[in-house]
Specification:
The protein is α/β, with parallel strands linked by helices and 315 residues long. The strands form two sheets. It has an eight-stranded mixed sheet. A two-stranded antiparallel ribbon has the order 9-10. β9 and β10 form a beta hairpin.
């Protein structure tokens, strides 16, 4: 079960429609999913209505944040709990300004039918005099309706923290708190992979990819009857004028004949070709993609719109 997912109703923290979240859950075999948009419940009705279609049991909640810093996630146990949770959010929004809530309390209120999850990252918070601020480090500890959420990337640090202080995090009150905010690009990155040392492609093809920009892409059905993206330098090299190709539709579909053949004489590429400038080993590309993903994910949790290191790389 995912306890902290965002739809496109979470400004800067989500990009998927509620039904897309449900489709992703179904594909991953997730049977229970919580929609916890940031200070917003607009996606809840559609999420709850569509969930049975995807074989998912819906849970509705809210992600409460102080700026980019997550304070806690509230999850409704039932209809009445959701009403109380919405009432708490409405009160904060009415007290706030310009659509932003008033300052989020350090400790969530006790609301019947609502469970609260505090991110374990709050363990580092301190008051001005250096005392711990996290709710589970206060006298009396956590209430029965409160838990501590640990993200997958924090498991190593949690193990070390428990060795130093076994009682520092309540053992029976820990839950997994992975976040779901966007869908990874499942495209095969074919153009990027073609321009690698291991690719079984002509050296001239790799060089053309490295020397081309998005403006060198022509979208046309001329070569097969099916529209596709082709490199204009390869079209010219085949003796054709990219600006004067005859019109052709799917009734003329042909993948195997003709003096000029797609992919043999005329080479294809994607719109991202302008970001490719060399043909390194495939392992280097994989490492780079992983680093970019990790940077984007870290920026998401830090509240950055664009990761600083990706911005610097683009410049």
């Amino acid at each position: 079960m995912f306890l902290n997912t965002h739809s496109w109703f979470s400004l800067r923290y989500g990009v998927l429609r509620p039904e897309e979240l449900l489709a992703e859950a179904q594909a991953a075999g997730v049977t229970c999913l919580a929609l916890t948009d940031v200070h917003c419940t607009a996606g809840g009705p559609d999420f709850a209505r569509l969930a049975p279609k995807y074989g998912v049991r819906p849970v509705l909640g809210v992600d409460f944040r102080d700026g980019a810093i997550q304070r806690y996630v509230g999850l409704a146990r039932d209809h009445d709990g959701y009403e109380r949770l919405c009432g708490f959010l409405s009160g904060l929004l009415h007290e706030g300004h310009a659509g932003k809530p008033a300052r989020i309390p350090d400790r969530a209120p006790a609301l019947e039918g609502v469970v609260w999850v505090y991110p374990w990252a709050r363990r580092a918070e301190r008051t001005t005099d250096g005392a711990p601020r996290s709710p589970w480090q206060q006298p009396g500890g956590l209430r029965p309706d409160e838990c501590v959420g640990v993200r997958p990337g924090e498991l190593g640090a949690l193990r070390l923290a428990l060795q130093r202080d076994p009682g520092g995090t309540p053992r029976g009150r820990r839950v997994a708190l992975p976040s779901g905010s966007f869908r990874p690009d499942r495209a095969p990155h074919a153009t990027r992979v073609i321009a690698t040392r291991q690719a079984n492609a002509a050296a001239a093809y790799k060089d053309m990819i490295a020397g081309s920009a998005a403006a060198d892409i022509l979208y046309t059905p001329y070569f097969t009857g099916v529209p596709g993206n082709y490199l204009t330098p390869s079209i010219r090299a085949a003796g054709l004028d990219p600006e004067a190709l005859p019109a052709r539709d799917k009734t003329a579909m042909n993948f195997g004949s003709g003096s000029v053949k797609a992919w043999r004489d005329v080479w294809g590429a994607g719109q991202g070709v302008g970001h490719i400038h060399e043909a390194p080993p495939a392992a280097e590309i994989v490492a780079r993609l992983k680093a970019e993903y990790d940077a984007a994910r870290a920026a998401l949790f830090a509240g950055e719109t664009v990761p600083t290191q990706l911005k610097q790389a683009a410049e």
